[in-house]
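Notes from hallway chat w/ T.B., transcribed later so I don't forget. T.B. wanted the structure written out for a chain they're using in a teaching module, and asked if we could keep both sequence and structure tokens in one place. Agreed to drop them here.
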Amino acid sequence: MSKQDVDYIYIKTQELGEAIRASEIYRNMRESEARARENPQPCIIDEMNDSTREFASLIRQVNQVLQFIITGEMDEKGCGGACAECAGCAAREG
């Protein structure tokens, strides 16, 4: 792989990271983490755990889409390929 290829991939990875950090899911997770640090009550911790799971789901979806774009294959445990039944695949929104 050439340095130019590596640089291009790095720039696109930075752009993806910026898009994820700008997402509502990421902001919700960070805000709930801050609330939990300030007030570690069970209901606040539950909210933080929910938002963390939602963010983890987003990252899994991003990884699945990347895998599909690169290889043309989906992880058997991930997307079943039936977009009509999908509730959150990033590929549907793009």
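Follow-up for T.B.: Residues 3-93 form one domain. Might be a good example for the class.
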